[in-house]
């Protein structure tokens, strides 16, 4: 029964990812990133280094995806965000190598406000009427694409 439940959950998650908007994908990535960091931190506390490492490595993969999807050519703030992602990714490497729970927590503290901001941006974007991508109205953008994602 457990395998059946896991298969259904996996299928549901695959459908959610395939049907998600760019903003939805971004928030899913951030949610999973924060889950990985929470799991890693818990594992580090009880010295389950293999579990901690698995979660920290997955978090690094997600950061790599965030970095590769960041469009530095369309958003002035993208270079700063790229630097922040690189700093956090290096921090996760150090947290993994050094079995450093405080470094994992520091990375989570840096990323949590970004997760919240992207969720808010996605929510606000859903409330606005649809319009052509990249066609701001009175100085406001209607798409996360102008923020360098999507």
Fold topology:
Blueprint: H1 2-19, H2 22-45, H3 49-69, H4 78-97, H5 101-127
Helix pairs in contact: 2-3, 2-5, 3-4, 4-5
How would you describe this protein?
Belongs to the FliS family. This is Flagellar export chaperone FliS. Pfam families: FliS. Its main location: cytoplasm. Keywords: Bacterial flagellum biogenesis, Cell projection, Chaperone, Cilium, Cytoplasm, Flagellum. By secondary structure, the chain is mainly alpha-helical. The chain has a single domain, classed as Flagellar protein FliS (Four Helix Bundle (Hemerythrin (Met), subunit A), Up-down Bundle). 73% of the residues lie in helices and 0% in strands. The chain has five helices and no strands. The chain has helices at 2-19, 22-45, 49-69, 78-97, 101-127. α2 packs antiparallel against α3 (49-69). The longest helix is centred in the last third of the chain and has 27 residues, at 101-127. The chain is globular and about 45 Å long. The N and C termini lie far apart (38 Å). Mean pLDDT is 84; it is low at 131-143.
The biggest sheet, with number of strands, parallel, antiparallel or mixed sense and barrel status, is:
none
What is the name of the CATH superfamily?
A: Flagellar protein FliS
Oligomer: single chain
Report the end-to-end length measured between terminal Cα atoms: 38 Å
Number of domains: 1
Query: Low-confidence parts, pLDDT < 50 over ≥5 residues?
Result: 131-143
CATH architecture: Up-down Bundle
The CATH C-level name is Mainly Alpha
The percentage helix is: over 70%
Overall strand count: 0
Mean pLDDT: 84
Order of helices and strands: HHHHH
